[in-house]
Amino acid sequence: MLAYSIKQGEFILETTANISSANDFMSSQYGMILYNSTCMCLQTIGETLKQIDKLTSQQLLSQKYEKTPWRNIFALRNIISHEYASTDPEEIFGIIRHDLLPLLSTLRTISADVATGKHDELFHD
Predict the structure, then answer these.
(1) 25 touches 32 (CB < 8 A)
(2) What pLDDT, in 10s, does the model give residues 21-34?
(3) How large is the angle between the packed helices 100-115 and 2-15, nearest 10 degrees?
């Protein structure tokens, strides 16, 4: 699940590398396709991380990696899922440019920590 979220984030960064403003999403059919794709990826990242949070009884993400705004990530997922017409291209652009790299860094750290057994107690009954 962590690897999937990382891949989704990397895909967003790769496909939006030439987007220089939120207007680039809205100015062409290709931009709109990219915007929709980006929102779907952000939604799946939020959903996957929400599932990880549930599987670990909210003890992994918010307790072990508390500097990451997990509630905001889950809230974004909810907005995209339930209020898609309310999404703001400026906000999505800002997330891509300012928030996604730090999130990916944290996810890579969590993945490495899980791989080395650092949090094994959270994954066993």
Answers:
(1) yes
(2) 999 999 999 999 99
(3) 150
